[in-house]
Amino acid sequence: MPSDNSVLVIGAGIFGLTAALELQQRGHQVTVADPGPIPHPLATSNDLSRMVRIDYGADGLYSTLGADAIEGWRRWNAGWGRDLFHEDGMLLLTSAPMVAGEFEQDSYDLLTGRGFPLEMLAHGDLARRFPHWNSEYYIDGYFNPMAGWAEAGEITASLAQDAANAGVSVVTGFSAVRLLQEGNRVSGASAPDGTELRADWVVVAAGVWTTVLLPELADRMWPVGQPVFYFKPQDPSTYRPPSFPPWAADTPRSGWYGFPANHEGVVKMANHGPGRRVHPDADRVITAEEEALCRAFLSQSLPSLASVPMHESKMCLYTDTWDGDFWIGRDPERQGLVVATGGSGHAFKFAPVLGGLAADALEGVENPYSQRFAWRPLAEIKKEDMRYVGE
Questions:
Q1: pLDDT tens across 2-57, in order?
Q2: CB proximity list for 161: less than 8 A, separation 6 or greater
Q3: Which residues touch 373 (CB under 8 Å, ≥6 apart)?
Q4: pLDDT at position 122
Q5: Distance in angstroms (rounded) separating the CA atoms of residues 224 and 208
Q6: What is the Cα–Cα distance from 290 to 293, expressed in whole angstroms?
Q7: 195-200 long-range CB contacts below 8 Å, 24 or more apart?
Q8: I want to staple 261 with a disulfide (CB 3.0 to 4.6 A). Which of 62, 239, 295, 314 is the partner?
Q9: Domains parsed from the chain with CATH numbers
Q10: Residue 257's CB: how many other CB atoms inside 10 A?
Q11: What is the residue-averaged pLDDT of the chain?
């Protein structure tokens, strides 16, 4: 494929910006268009933090991709001259003994089998090393030092600047509502006021708004709301590593995970559960029931936070695919169209390698992930086959 194709990327979130950067570096002429500002206040990529981990149960493909991504995070930190990825490790806790066939034990077995230095928690370790946790309730687990968290909003803003510096044309104030098509080839997009942007290739990386442009995918991906909570304890220093690293507590069963206090003293936690399907433009507010479940979890698990007033809360929208895998591939029926979306609540951690996957899809380059993330038909999937993939 010639390297001087013009490419229009729709959406300046983590999928769109990384694709734009990679394609520009490969010699394409790239424009990325977004309603703006970047990061967009309603975009999934915009928040205080995102988890970065390689723990994926027995799923070796995502674990490998995660390890490659962490190397990329380290390179990005060096290039930016500041640490926007914090390699503070991750604590995975269980209230029952870890057993084979479940997420935590399978993660531990796969990763230690590959030589990663995970630290199984012995009796007394939780109370000694991580004293905020209820060590009578959580009786098993491990700590993975090769993990951490990323400053999502700051990183998105930095990538937008990197893209502009690399020669990408970053267009804000453009809300794509329709794809342009000439014969069997997608050739651009138009905005509500009739403004058009045209290119040889179009990459739709519009997150929860993807099905606005591609309604035919609405049976295979959809917006799902998940609750996020923020607290500001009086002494945030005790909620920072090493005694309070990023964590997941019975997460495949309870859905709860969270982060240490950031530089502003804000402790974030969230739930990755079934969620609720919503319109992409829905109000981003949580329900009283969701807050009550959060308080109940804190009372049982992190009692020191249970009575801290809520600093903020919101509903975060995932673009869930039917099988939980990303959607990074060419349209098999129309020329000139690539879709890069379907984060399903776990894409941001892979940011340093996402752009390469999207660029490979556009250029027709096969990689170990091409088939897994390709454009695919809806198929039956059993609930017990779903992986825990939350941030």
A1: 567 999 999 999 999 999 999 999 999 999 999 999 988 888 877 899 999 999 99
A2: none
A3: 325, 326, 327, 328, 329, 342, 357
A4: 95
A5: 9
A6: 5
A7: 197/8, 197/31, 197/33, 197/171, 198/6, 198/8, 199/5, 199/6, 199/7, 199/8, 199/31, 200/5, 200/6, 200/7, 200/336
A8: 239
A9: 6-46+153-220+323-385 (3.50.50.60), 87-149+223-318 (3.30.9.10)
A10: 23
A11: 94
Structure tokens given for 172: 């804000």
CA distances from 118 to 10, 73, 105, 369 (A): 40, 20, 12, 26
Helices vs. strands in the chain: H and E counts, helices first = 10, 21
Answer for the pair 319, 221: CB distance below 8 angstroms, yes or no.
Answer: yes
Q: Retrieve residue 148's tokens.
A: 């951490």
* Per-residue confidence band for 381, with pLDDT thresholds at 50, 70 and 90: low
Q: Which amino acid is at 204?
A: V
DSSP letter for each residue of 197-247 = EE-SEEEE--GGGHHHH-GGGTTTEEEEEEEEEEE--S-GGGGSTTTS--E
The pLDDT of residue 385 is above 80: no
Question: Residue 248 belongs to what H/E stretch?
Answer: strand 247-249
Question: Taking Cα atoms as reference points, which of 363, 357, 369, 330 lies closest to residue 28?
Answer: 363
Looking at residue 345, what DSSP letter applies? Answer: T
User: Residues 90, 226, 215, 28: is their CA dihedral positive or negative?
Assistant: negative
Contacts of 391 (CB under 8 A, 6+ apart): 50, 51, 257, 270, 272, 345, 346, 348, 349
117 preceded by a cis bond (ω within 30 of 0): no
- CA–CA separation, 208 and 187 (whole Å): 22
Contact 174, 30 (CB under 8 A): no
Residue whose token pair is 């997460």:
251
Instruction: Return d(Cα 198, Cα 203) in angstroms, integer.
Output: 12
Give me the phi and psi of 314, to 5 degrees please.
-165, 165
Residue 184 confidence (pLDDT): 96
Spatial separation of the C-alpha atoms in residues 219 and 320, rounded to whole Å: 11
| DSSP assignments along 98-130, one per residue | --TTSHHHHHHHHHHHTT---EEPPTTHHHHH-
